[in-house]
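Lab meeting prep.
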Amino acid sequence: MNNKTPMVFREMILPFILLTTCFAAWGVAANMTDPLVKVFSKIFTMSALESALVQFAYYGAYFCLALPAAFINRRFSYKTGVLTGLGFAALGALMFYPASQAMTYGYFLAALFILAAGLSILETSANPFVIAMGPVGNATRRLNFAQAFNPVGCNIGVFLGASLILTQLNPATAVERAAMAPAELSAIQSAELDAVMVPYVGMACVLLLIWMAIAMMRIRPSREKVVAHSRDIKLGATLGRLLRNRHYRFGVVAQFFNVGAQTCVWTFTIQYVMDALSVNEARAGDYLQYSLILFLIARFAMTWLMGYIRASKLLAGLSVLATALCGYMIASPDISGVWALVAISGCLSLMFPTIYGIALQGLGEDTKFGAAGLVMAILGGAIMPLVQGAVIDGYGATLSFIVPAACFLVVARYGYFDLKAERKAHSAARPAVV
């Protein structure tokens, strides 16, 4: 370590703190969105598959905008990417106001798409930004620490969704709504959609404040490199190297199924609890809040454990445990099954940043586009809830959790793959005994 290292570290503290607010911000957005599947299903009287288009629009935007974000980061800087993402996210959140006035499901999906487009750019930029802020040796652990503030935002998002949205839903059932006069039904829907709009417009204001704070700071990690002109970005060669890297390629697949499993679990928690315990949306939402509290506590605990246990070993073990918990809750759709569902969030806590950090190891100048691929893998959050929604429509909420169970098995396989690759590397590096 040279003499400049402590000084550089001190200079990065305030930027690091500001970046952690971004991690919290997209946690708020994602977990205010999860209850919207059930909310829109009730307001617009739709099937589980139709209402799951909320997640398709949200996570589909992550897929579409990750690669453009990589171009922004490579040509300009991580800071430019962060500011661009925050700006788009604020615009999307503000669009909830005209959507609530139009009372059209498609307008809400468009607003969600723009919001998530901004968050995709933000996440593609912020994650490798944190990795570039310090030594390579503890990059995965540093990213886990920064990501630990994401569940802080997740808990705030669930709280806002439960207190400001779910509690404002009219208790009228789909049959009762169908029997209402058009004017009466329209008045109820208008009040419910206004409740959806308020927390999103408030979040837009917070995002704009974060944008101004970051814009005023000079931030450039010493390990970050940009190109002089967009024509100097050799996309074909970069993608070729990434596709030939089996470790990275499997990491993208694992991230797809990890995000798919996480989104399925949190999206359909309310529906499972309602079926298992015969309670209303607001009461079922409490268990989603418990899940996110456990997720928060476990994220900090796992960051500490990584100082003693290899990250890939924790990843594999917790993925197997999550699969077992899914099996238990399918077999026991009662209060014990509900608590098994809550416990899955503890297993989820370390998965995203750990897969992210492991997959980016050793990519060098390809890191910015590698990061884009891992964010594009968030498409799993768009696809897998549609699969689970179709299973719910055909077989019920309980059996549908076979979908995240299968996803967790893929993540477990990646953890074991990384452990095996590491053992081979150590064996190759060990001097031969003569």
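Slide two material, second protein:
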Amino acid sequence: MAGSEAAWQAAQLGVPVVIHEMRPKVETFAHRTGNLAEMVCSNSFRSDDSEQNAVGLLHWEMRAAGGLIMDMATKHRLPAGGALAVDRDPFAESVTAALKAHPLVTVSYEEITALPDNGHWIIATGPLTSGALAQAVQEETGADALAFFDAIAPIVYFDSIDMNVAWMQSRYDKGETEEERTAYLNCPMTKDQYEAFIDALLAAEKAEFKEGETAGYFDGCLPIEVMAERGRETLRFGPMKPVGLTNAHDPANKPYAVVQLRRDNALGTLFNIVGFQTKMKYGAQAHVLRMIPGLHVAKFARLGGIHRNTFLNSPTLLDEQMRLKSKPHIRFAGQITGVEGYVESAAMGLLAGRMAAAEIKGETLPEVPRTSAMGALVHHITGGAEAKTFQPMNVNFGLFPPLDGVRGGRRGRKDRYKGYTDRAKEDWQTWLAPQSSLAAE
């Protein structure tokens, strides 16, 4: 995501770009294709609400900057209530095609195994940086890269789901159209079914880690079994919460818990299990997941998995222009910088591409306004976060400078969030405006 967006932004500003992509010659655990911007976990870009949600605001800022990722995500949008979910394969194919068709972009398929000594580079290797390059980064920085483990959710064939048990409904019937209001597939559980499911989940055989590895999970992407280990009710107040839903087959009885699935492709033949990232081994995983009502004969297009995700201690290693302090001709972008999520990763690519293009043209972009979503996020990773406790971060309003004269607390939240987004949009457009002249130079 980050590398594709960085390349697009720099090329749009008139700078020739070479994208180095090791796939499909060198494969990874999670990827299936050689396409750029392949989605390996969820197919959701999360909320598209630019007035009340920080990630929705990030969507808006990227669109305002002519972002390729958001443009293609919108073109391949799937119904998902208030979220922006995409048809993952056509999305990646379109991003790849757009970049290959750009007159200033070249794609080179080979692995980069060392840090280059000259030129202008952006390293946007995502959560699966290859071993050789990761080692080169470690040797250069003199510090071990931090790491956590990222888990992948299973995908189910729709025609194997029992629709006499499951029903279609978005939580609280959210959405402007009937398609949006029925974007999620729901599988209800009674208390006894939930308790049996938790028992099986806790007893299931899990993937083991290599000696010396520790499982430091990002809280926004916890495996379901790790959540269950934190308390038997954790899942029922997390991805399996039953609120805002009415069982179409039995409206009088409120489910004790609900498992939701979201469409994963435009044809509606594939659905992913929302929030069900897992490290269970495949045999145990299929058995446990088929305990979910409606999925008792489910067929899986992909079972869940787990992979290592490396990232830098960016507050100590990167400057405000996202450059490696010890080698300022190298910038980093995306998840390797310590942001979490597709949108956040692509946003950091957008900034890195613009910053690199401006530098190549002999200019330095002014500081990204900290009042914007992008500014709040890049400031956090390049200095605003506490280096000793630095962990991957999603964009959120807690990263934004406070608003004057706006009521705090839960009751004032709606007005406060609208204030944040109004201020951000104005300041972001002011920051973008002078850059339109760069492309003409």
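Talking points for slide two:
The longest strand covers residues 146-152.
DSSP finds 13 helices and 16 strands in the chain.
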